[in-house]
Design a protein that fits this description.
The protein has 6 helices and 11 strands. It is of the alpha+beta class. The two termini are about 20 Å apart.
Length: about 230
Amino acid sequence: MKQEIAAFELNYIINELQGIIGAKVDKIFQPEKKEITFQLYAGNSGKKLLRIIPGKFMYMTQFKGENPQTPFGYCLFLRKHLDSARITSISQIAFERIIEMTFEKKDKKYKLIVEFFDKGNLIVCDENYKIISPLEIQKWEKRTIMAGKIYTAPQKEYNFLKITKIELKKILESTTYESIVKCLAVDLGLGGVYSEELCVISKIDKMEKPKNVDISKLFDALESLRSAKLD
């Protein structure tokens, strides 16, 4: 069963969420340690609920669910900084599995970063991307997520939404993966499901070595997938 959201899907989700730009944060809940729900007031359309589970999902819902009698500490932190703030932008960072939301409150501006890769995370930054507090402190060899650090997102060299035929050729020639499906999933960031779909559309064996793939067929399929709409 598919558990993780793909960067390709995230792009469409963000397009759908553009409707809540301008909405004001009415209440914030934290039903579980890694789950945040924003109750928003969106003018003529009334109250809306935005549910965020870092690493997994982000969607509008009508159900608030059960909340603990004593709020989690991070919920109180979010209320302190984002209560009554307005959402002014929602975007995807490059073609990564990361959503960036901008909140404005009087003379302050905050960046809320939601990561959907690995274990996932939710990070509140100031307008200069200095981390105020993450949901979880995380450390990698070249990247640390903790208060006081400047937030930097991991970025692939190529963006699926903008990649050219020449750039695609470079990826296939330089990849260390033995199969085209793995190359597309990791190097291009498509994930397993959409990489297999791309192979089906292009009629290319998913286990074919990247250097042996017909670039023209693959790029035509990529263009088709890139312009398609999710059901």
